[in-house]
Amino acid sequence: MENPHALRSKGWAGIAFVVLIVASVVLGGTPPDANAAPASIAAYLSTHRHALLVGGWLSFPTVAFFLWFVVGIAGYLRRMSAQDEGLPTFALASGIYTAAVAFVASLVNTALAFAPVGPGGLQFLWALGALANGAFLAMGLAIFVYACTHSMRRHNSGATWLVGLGYLTVAGEAIMSFGMFYPSGVALGNNIMGLVLGFVLFAIWTIAVSTTLIGQGSRQLAGSPA
Length: 226
Fold this sequence. Notes:
Helix content is 79%, strand content 0%. With 226 residues, the chain is mainly α.
């Protein structure tokens, strides 16, 4: 049995991760489309330079909290599985991939805000950051949430509504993965529908799973059956 204090801390880490992501999104404002003109990109970077640098630093605690949450949910799923078919490990691996992609996206955006770049390089790097922070991040999140949700369904380790929310979140991230084909619009995440599909559903799911981990740890501390 896992240390209940550690289990609770992994749940709180998931909630802290969501709070930091919201802070980063608010700081960064609404970025131009992936195929925006260099002048529009340069104007955005100049206006939001300090906020982007702060957001770049925030990727350090954000990824740390996310990975601790990933370790927590993977361990929880493994303990709750009658037979380990590999889904908890799949969740762990996809969570690490997602964190790596998020770091790359943050690095590119921070570098663009940190030092000036010529128009050609600016447009290429902006598109690279947009793809990493959009379609490729959505791919990782879709795999991660699917692995967690499918394990919950197979082993009854999550409430029915949480499993349903998980599959809905997977569908939203799958739609966002098509962003590489549409450099503007819903799949980019720069409008309300894209924000809901790409972030809001995942944030709600993360908070719900985090409360499950916190509740599990609290029951263990109280001496109740897991």
